[in-house]
Amino acid sequence: MFQTSQTRRDVLIAATAAGAFSLLGKQMSQAAESAAMRPFRIDVPETELVDLRRRIKATRWPERETVSDESQGVPLATMQGLARYWSAEYDWRKVEAKLNALPQFITEIDGLDIHFIHVHSKHENALPLVVTHGWPGSIIEQLKIIDPLTNPTAYGGDASDAFHVVVPSLPGFGFSGKPTATGWNPERTARAWVVLMKRLGYTQFGAQGGDLGAGVVTAMAKQQPTELLGIHTNFPGTIPPDIAKMLAVGSPAPSELSADERRAFEQLKVLFAKRRAYAQMMATRPQALYGLADSPVGLAGWLFDHGDGYGQPAAAMTSAVLGRTINGHEAGDLTRDDVLDDFTLYWLTNTAVSSARFYWELDFSLYNAADISVPAAVSVFPGENYQAPRSWTERAYHKLVYFNKVDKGGHYAAWEHPQLFAQEVRAGFNAIRQI
């Protein structure tokens, strides 16, 4: 299904003038082979797509929900409509062609194959940038920001805003390898990303991430590799320790909170009480999710819902699927095909359970104060799970050089408003570059 090929970078170490290889030479050869960047191309057999459509059509549906809203989950009519389109009209080959038009590679890091997209900017002095996706996203989330970041002059930016963009698939996600043992957490992933960027020849770089990707860049910032210039995140961890304790026990908001802090407190209170069931399941019992590997519709319902009742992050996805704005959260540039591209990627790579294990490996809260000291830029989108107050953000990011509240967009900001998202990344790293 997925093809790789070796490059001339594979090196054989001659041990003797006669060409015989010593044990050391063999070990060095094997190391060079594992470190090679192997070109990667997607070629899904048609039989896999036929089987997908067959399974969708064979879905055994439950009865409809007993409420007139979305409070019990994605409504039956919504899922049946999506399934009809998925099985009859959706075309995977379109996104396959988009992906294959980009430079893709596989390289082995710390015993695991890591898949990544690597697009060079044509502009001199472009800043290398590693961008990390989250769940239920994938590299497909980031496709629309690659050109605005690598080619900013075509989108109203300056040549000095340009980036060389690297977009890896998280361990257990998409085309990356599936860990066969425990330990692939954000910290280990962050170290792997540093190895990847150095292997690509970059001696200095920036890092960007939202959702689980924010966990990776937070871990990287805490590790403080000398190559890291700074980070940008659209999913900041800012909850002060005292506030986190209050939220954990259901205490009311303290009276001394500012208006922004009180709003964030109330948003987080609802989030933790009603909208984290999916994350708790994956963080505790990911191996129990067998149905996601067996039923495309079961997988889609799990990836789609988020337990938020058309709040973020599901609202933009729902707006895209239904073709109308839901609860004031527009789809922006996000389309029904974009959503199905992502769901289909999870299905074809059978990564529902392996990706869920990343939550099991997560050993810190993405929401609590990050407590990092590298230069940081933060963009707050209005449709995110909560709007981080500047006061909390400044306490969590000790070298906060950029903070901006954006006027539109949500949890999938790069998907929903790619040009706006790219502008935020440029602005954030412009501030970091000035240090």
Automatic annotation (TrEMBL):
Gene3D superfamilies: alpha/beta hydrolase. Belongs to the peptidase S33 family. It comes from Mesorhizobium hawassense. Residues 37-141 form the Epoxide hydrolase N-terminal domain. PROSITE patterns: TAT (PS51318). It comes from the Bacteria. This is Epoxide hydrolase. It holds the Pfam family EHN. One of its GO terms (biological process) is epoxide metabolic process.
